[in-house]
Amino acid sequence: MWPAPVLELLAAGGDRPVFEDGGRVVTAEQMYSLIRRIAAGLREGGIGPGCGVALRLGVNASAFAAVIAAFTVGARVSGLPPGLTRGQLAHLLERDDAVLIDDATVAGLADHPAGPLFTAGRAEDVARIIYTSGSTGNPKGCAQTYEAMSAAWAAQPHLWPPAIAELARRLDRYLVFGSLTSQVMLEYGILTLAAGGTLVAAHPPSFPEAIVGHRATASVITVGKLHQLVRAQQLNPVDLSSLKALMVSGSPLEPGRLREALDVLGPVIFHGYGQTETGMISMAVPGDPLDSVGRPPAVTSLRFHDGELYVRTPAQAGFYWQDPEGSARVFVDGWVRTRDLAGLGEDGCLRLLGRARDVIIVQATLVYAGPVERVLATDSSVAEAYVIGRPDDETGEAIHAYVVPVTGRTPDPAMLRDLVAAHLGASAAPKSVTVIDRVPLAPSGKPDKAALATDDRLNRRWPGTRAPSAQRTV
């Protein structure tokens, strides 16, 4: 039962380095001992099967050990997403009946005498709650059972699909940053350990400095950060000869941008497609068609309904924690609605064709347009609010808001951005807020957000409106 495969590879690892943090190098034997001590401390504190723990930890060896130890004692583990408002944090802790564990708590647990190490997770229990961004008001929690996590491929080389086996060969020194409870960061971290590599804490956590400074061979990167890295290499190239793999995640990578990245950085781009609800659905490796997201593994099932992709993966979440209505909309008879439009080519590659939901992906964070629009509309100066997304070199996609003022009132774009950030978090704050006289209408008479998405905000005149010369934008 999960996380037995991780414990087994650490127990057999001896003096192999598994975590590097500045001048501190932690061996497999030392990491195993640290997990034993933290797990013993958790058990003494009454944490076991069915208990909820919420982890808010830094990026260090003790944090990694705490994550694995929490699974070992059979707890219901949730990693708190960054950028939560105070209200969102309080809501999660209360709803989950979870004990908050931070770095100070872990430091105390690490001094506990080590006890026997055994996995206590029960197959049907929830092992992990992976939170979405909170852009819908409060984060949704995707619940994975211990049975589902035990089916995951990362720690089990015999289960690796071809794309993952190719990636594993490049994970000698994998940069970790942000949060080790992140679904993507932890999954590739465990894959690194199974492949014989070392997790390296990124100091600084920026590109290309971290790659050069740590002689890193691999890391996760968002689309926006990839664009910035490519530009930096074009303008002021540095030695990236150690780099073997960049796992791009979070938002779609346009073929032109992918081609440019391959030209500048070489054949190091692995472009994954997945969701919080499903984990990895497919992965494109260097050499795959540029317009695809790669070939789904044989264990992943696909079906299409009116162009929308439904998937079933061995380690997928089963439901949204304490949200039966949301669960019923997305988790259908063992399948997960991706709410993405897609098609499977004769070459076996999956291609994304659009979205069946009004969502914008900002730095790998899903932001739903509806909640942002509703928050904007609460301001007394706003009569109507509309939110769209556009490609952005810094964030992958960016949020742009258009507001129609109440007669006689003048909305303050800066205050509106702050309003959204206060309610939904900084990731949901619009990059721009434009004040318009009237929203353009489609032939059906409904608001035409597609017209807003293509507006150049300079010369466009929308049918039935005044020229946008009266627009105010920040």
TrEMBL record:
Domain called AMP-dependent synthetase/ligase: residue spans: 14-100, 121-321
Annotated ranges, domain AMP-binding enzyme C-terminal: 372-446
PROSITE patterns in UniProt: AMP_BINDING (PS00455)
Gene Ontology molecular functions: acid-thiol ligase activity
Keywords noted in UniProt: Ligase
Chain segments carrying region Disordered: 445-474
The keyword Ligase appears for this protein: yes
Biased composition (Basic and acidic residues): 446-459
Pfam family, one: AMP-binding_C
Protein name: Acyl-CoA synthetase (AMP-forming)/AMP-acid ligase II
Phylogenetic classification of the source organism: Bacteria, Bacillati, Actinomycetota, Actinomycetes, Micromonosporales
